[in-house]
Amino acid sequence: MVKAGDEDSKRGRAVAPAAAKQDLIGTALAPSMFATLLSRLFNWSRSGVGPRLLAAVLLFSSVVTLTLTALQLYLDYDREVGLIETRLEEIGRSTTGSLGESLWNLDQNQLKLQLDGILRLPDIRAAEVREIADRPNPIRLAIGDPSTRSVVTRDYPLNTIVQGTAREIGVLHVEATLTDVYQHLLNRALVILASQAAKTFLVSLFIIYMFHLLVTRHLVAIAEFVSKYSLAWPPPPLRLERRPPYDADELDKVIDAFNAMCANLQRAYGELREANANLERDLTIRQRAEEDARASEQRFRDYAETASDWFWETGPDHRFTYISDRAGAFSMDSKALIGKRRADAAFGRDAEPEKWRAHMAMLDRHEPFRKFEYRGRDTAGRMHHFSVNGQPIFAADGRFMGYRGSATDLTKQHETEERLRQSQKMDAIGQLTGGVAHDFNNVLTVITGTIEIIQEGLADKPEFAAIAQLIDDAAARGAEITSQLLTFARRQPLEPREIDVNALVLESTKLLRPILGAHIEIVTRLADDAWSAMADPSQLSSAIVNLAVNARDAMPGGGKLTIETANRELDDTGVAGDGDAVRGAFVMVAVGDTGHGIPADIRERVFEPFFTTKGVGRGTGLGLSMVYGFAK
Fold it and tell me: Quick check: helix, strand or coil at residue 613?
């Protein structure tokens, strides 16, 4: 019966516990003195090639020595443990019979003598005999000093023959210690390490000495020669201070190659100096040319940034690659346009397909163009009219690179031309209307005078007098319309005088409340510091009433009417495009409403006489015409 802890013990092999193995290897392979020596050698090895070579040799030799020592110790350990196993097996074969007989005879003295004999064997630490019996107080005899560490144990059954049958009557327990084995291995490891370390160190010193004699000192000489070498004042060719070898070795080849390299460097240095002189001359010329180019570029950039136009550039795909900052003066986002085509930023392109198709075909043919006009919106959504000129650009090899050109904002010009056309149109209508109204007024004067005479003669004929009264009322209505037409044509004589505009607006507001009705809210925003103005109060009041009535008709479901006054100074910019406007101080009267507004397609006609959007019988179309004529 075997009680050793692992499978090898059950097979008859004595194996030391794992902790004991680790203690042995740690004691043999990691002495602190050796670790300190390796650390110092590593730090010293950083100073040059020789020390690093010495450190490498020592390190490699140490690794080999440690590996071989560990292998030798393992073999010795295995051999010693094998001897202990053999000894234990011999105890089992030679003593179990006699011990069984003594135990059967209950001869404890004989048992003790036999156990003493076992204990005197080498490496045996303790022995014990235990009786297996059903009686109380069975025999148990133990000698020696049992241990729990670094031991190998064996349990052998003790048998005897009873009536021809083998019977187990007890157990022999034997313990063998590995302490002496470990001590022997430790002593052997120290001897091996000391001898190998001395041998390795001496061999390494010899190697480093020979390396210094043959290589290192010459490397130092080469390094000093190179550190002091100057291309401006070259020294003589390098020569090593040593006895020439029979055949050229590696150092001779290095010296020959180095001297050849120095000669090549001298030649290249001379060529480089000449090239540098030429380069400095060329660089001076180039710097002067670059300065001229920068000055020219800055000059044209100043022109571009201060010009009324802005400049642009497109790539081969007709997408913008550059737009000058001047475009920002017209509220154009130049950064947002980069990468887009002109057609992408245009407004109303679908309304002019032929125009854009012809323009794109011209671009694809790489032809120059001038005064191409289109519309676009700025960052605030306002419409602008642009006119662009472009010139194709080509690379030196003839490749098409894109277009460069300028752009002009024609918005103000278009607005001025439109106001001029509208003014000329209204002047023509005014002249025609004024002439007709003047002639018609003469006819009405005759009719009015005649009706008065007829009414006097028909005083006794009431049925005819009523007809005459109808004619007189119609003539009065015609005279009123004629007066409005003359006002539009600016032929109605005005009676301007200094008035308080705020007071007149408040007075007109009182007249408007019954006219507009309760469903219209009247709001006044009058300037506290409004100036006095020279104007015909009657005509101004009529203009306010006419504007209010038009606002009422635009808000059939109710709304808000706002009348506002403010002081205004008109300068050259304010009167531009209006031939009748003059510079000076004015009081503005503005009438606004919350109605549906005036459609864009009829805005140019709302001031024409007799133009109305109301149904038949709901207006004469002269209200806004009279306001226009009065304002003019």
Answer: coil
Give how far Cα 587 sits from Cα of 131, 278, 527, Å: 138, 77, 10
Q: Which of left, alpha, beta for 624 (phi over 0: left; psi -120 to 50: alpha)?
A: alpha
Homologous superfamily of the 494-597 domain (CATH): Histidine kinase-like ATPase, C-terminal domain (3.30.565.10)
Q: Are 376 and 330 in contact (CB under 8 A)?
A: no
* Residues 483, 153: Cα–Cα separation, whole Å: 144
Per-residue pLDDT of 460-473, as tens digits, reads 777 777 777 777 66
Rounded to whole angstroms, the Cα distance separating 333 from 365 reads 29
**199-204 own/partner pairs: CB under 8 Å, 24+ apart:** 200/57, 200/58, 200/61, 200/62, 200/65, 201/58, 203/57, 203/61, 204/54, 204/57, 204/58, 204/61
What mean pLDDT comes out for the span 469-495? 61
Q: What is the per-residue pLDDT for 220?
A: 79
Digit-coded pLDDT (tens) for 92-149 = 788 877 877 777 777 788 888 888 888 888 878 788 888 887 777 888 888 888 776 7
User: What are 276's two structure tokens?
Assistant: 């540098």
What would the CATH number be for the domain defined by 7-198? 3.30.450
Tokens of 103: 């135990």
Backbone angles phi, psi at 148, to 5 degrees: -110, 5
Summarised one tens digit per residue, pLDDT across range 529-582 is 889 888 878 778 778 887 888 888 878 888 898 999 999 888 766 555 555 667
The length of the chain in residues reads 632
Q: Give the other-Cβ count within 10 Å of 281's Cβ.
A: 10
Write out the H or E segment, with its range, that includes residue 422: helix 411-457
What separation, in Å, do the N-terminal and C-terminal C-alpha atoms of the chain show? Answer: 136
Whether the Cβ atoms of residue 318 and residue 328 lie closer than 8 Å to each other: no
In tens, the pLDDT along 170-182 reads 888 888 888 878 8
Mention the CATH class of domain 307-409.
alpha beta
- For residues 83 and 330, give the distance between their C-alpha atoms in angstroms, rounded to a whole number: 109
Angle between helices 217-227 and 250-306 (to 10 degrees): 30
Backbone angles phi, psi at 352, to 5 degrees: -130, 60
DSSP string, 225-291: HHHT--SSS--PPP--SSPPPSS--HHHHHHHHHHHHHHHHHHHHHHHHHHHHHHHHHHHHHHHHHH
Look at residue 160 and give its three-state secondary structure. Answer: strand
Q: Alpha carbon 149 to chain centroid distance?
A: 68
| C-alpha 483, offset from chain centre | 73
Residues whose CB is less than 8 angstroms from the CB of residue 617 and which lie 6 or more positions away in sequence, other chains included: none
Work out whether the CA dihedral 144, 148, 149, 151 comes out positive or negative.
Answer: positive
* Encoded tokens for 618: 């709901």
| Phi and psi torsions of 496, nearest 5° | -70, 145
**Parallel, antiparallel or unpaired: strands 559-570 and 520-525:** parallel
| Residue 394 binned pLDDT confidence (cut-offs 50, 70, 90) | very high
Calpha distance 344→332 (Å, rounded): 14
Residue 175 CB burial class (10 angstroms; 0-12, 13-18, ≥19): buried
Residue 190 · residue 29 · CB < 8 Å = no
What is the reported pLDDT for 312? 84
12 contacts 85 by C-beta, under 8 angstroms? yes
